[in-house]
Amino acid sequence: MTVHIVARFTARPDTVAQLRPILQGLLEPTRKEAGCLRYELLHNAADPTDFTFVEEWADDAAIDAHLQTPHLLDAVARSQALSTLDVRRYAAC
What we know:
Layout: E1 3-11, H1 16-24, H2 27-31, E2 36-43, E3 50-57, H3 60-66, H4 70-79, E4 83-91
Antiparallel strand pairs: 1-3, 1-4, 2-3
């Protein structure tokens, strides 16, 4: 059974332009990871501070490995002063 992740970054209004390239930088390396089935970054048209990743992973091991990758750890560290982060893990029902 695949694992679905919704990761929402809420930027401070004055940091939207700084946060966007950090998050966009995750797309290419993450999509190349083993077990990554879907990895999309969405930007809320009604709320420019809202960036949301919609992800699908082959299994828990794949997402757990992703959480330890240097590119993700670096992006999360760089975004901490710019935004808040809410990550939720789902299974299909």
